TrEMBL record:
Keywords: Heme, Iron, Membrane, Metal-binding, Mitochondrion, Molybdenum, Oxidoreductase, Transmembrane, Transmembrane helix. PROSITE patterns: CYTOCHROME_B5_1, CYTOCHROME_B5_2. It comes from Hemibagrus guttatus. One of its GO terms (biological process) is nervous system development. Catalyzes the oxidation of sulfite to sulfate, the terminal reaction in the oxidative degradation of sulfur-containing amino acids. Gene3D superfamilies: 2.60.40.650, Cytochrome b5-like heme/steroid binding domain, Oxidoreductase, molybdopterin-binding domain. This is Sulfite oxidase.
Amino acid sequence: MQHLRHCRRFTLVSFPIAPRQLKSPIPAVSVHSRFLALQSRSSSQDQHHSSYRRLRFRYAVTGLVAGTGAVLAYGLHHNKAEQPSIALTQTNSLPVYSREEVTKHCSIEKGIWVTYKGGVYDITDFVAIHPGGDKILLAAGKSLEPFWALYAVHEQEHILEILSEYKVGVLQADDREKEDIKSADPYSTDPPRHPALKVNSLKPFNAESPSAILTDSYITPSAIFFKRNHFPVPRVDPKTYRLKIEGLPGGTVSLTLDYLKSHFPKHTVMATLQCAGNRRSEMNKVKQVKGLNWEIAAISNATWSGAYLRDVLHHYGFGPELAAKARHVQFEGLDVDVTGTAYGASIPLNKAMNEEGDVLLAYEMNGEDLPADHGFPVRVIVPGFVGARNVKWLGKIIISEEESQSHWQQNDYKGFSPGTDWDTVDFKSAPAIQELPVQSAITNLTDGYSIDRNMENVTVKGYSWSGGGREVVRVDVSLDGGKTWHVAKLQNSEEGETSAPSPPPGQAWAWKLWEITIPLPEGAQELEVVCKAVDSSYNTQPESVAPIWNLRGVLSNAWHRVRVKVK
Ligand SMILES: Nc1nc2c(c(=O)[nH]1)N[C@H]1C(S)=C(S)[C@@H](COP(=O)(O)O)O[C@H]1N2
Ligand SMILES: [Mo]
């Protein structure tokens, strides 16, 4: 019984394609016994009694098609017995498919096809009988390789063996090649991107993290960290790279990458970045706004390593004299628009110089060189500040009495009254957004999602974060639109729960993930699931979007609401 309960919750969280929604007639009992077998197999390996949590966490972290090692392995035994397998040796006689054809098979209804090393696989039946189907759907119609590259996969050989049973064809040779060919445009040297990203615009490249897996890991893998570019990605040669700093007592200095790495202590800061326009799409529903239509995942968490900006400035003679005069630190990127204008922004000098500000000249992300999309070779990380100030491909730093005069500091990334529209707006009248307000959102449920009414519990998961280093101290969750509330469990490290010590006050740069399992209200046909976070200043999120609507659709942090059906 213990297992059954775990199992049912497990099913709910990781398997939104409830058996009843499937076309293929799989008797519920068989699905359940499969889950049971999965559960007991894993818990006996684990020898641990909070096995549900651990299993699910482990499952979630290894996520996607990749981590289904155990699941696939399990599937192997059973499928072998139940269906004739197509041997790998049959490859030559298999039909040849174009990528276009493969791409069409991207849903339960049309069948789910994936490719791997030139082979085409129809995994519809596999998805139907295994948990994690929602995650596998991310790869539907696409190539599996990038998904497997995202997380370490242990039983690769084993998975390949299982996959071979689902082989239905081979991919057309010129399509395999074409997939790598780039056209000659300014974006042709942009780096390859992970197919799970939810693309908002291709040129320039803007994409949010796939929300279904965003909170599977506390630290977002760089490949699925949201990406927000205004221009083509500049390809910078680390050997000739120079970081210029203007406005210092001795005039301008120019640093090499080696010098930055070897002359200043290396520090690592974990910080969440959020775009000012995260959740803009909810504002768009109130009234049209201008900007990329971000949903809930223009936010991600990573570790960043590099030199503290304050160490570098001190090294070059920054002292009280300059501090009395200058007020801002401006940053310029090496990325430019067609007119040659570089991306730029600035932050207050005191944030940069503050011992507790932790502003970094970062050259690593998640323990590796910065990826091209995230600012290789150097970007500035301004923890607790809006994404826009975290200038990538950093070319120049200017210590100044003035803010950056860039478009992005002066005429963008500012908040206005819901009563202000384009005919009346005066950008000079509002301050540039720097610290962001408290935020949270639900990641594992989306509008229209169905919950099996036989479930005992509903599990809700999401993220929470606040700007300015304010720590999230509580997340409240409601299943009835805000009439009754429950307090979620917070997670502030990869290990789960609140296992890591709290950061010093004012230095909570990283998000907290949260999760709660609530008994499914009896007889409910629909749930309005809501979350709201409270930060260490007891700031909380506004109840609805309309009163915070603004023409640029920034600072969208109302209670996050998701309507799900109970069937
Ligand atoms: N040089 C440069 N820096 C930039 C940008 C840019 O387009 N060019 N975009 C900014 C914006 S608006 C955001 S939200 C963050 C996104 O950082 P990410 O792409 O690493 O997630 O980078 C900021 N830094
Ligand atoms: Mo942004």
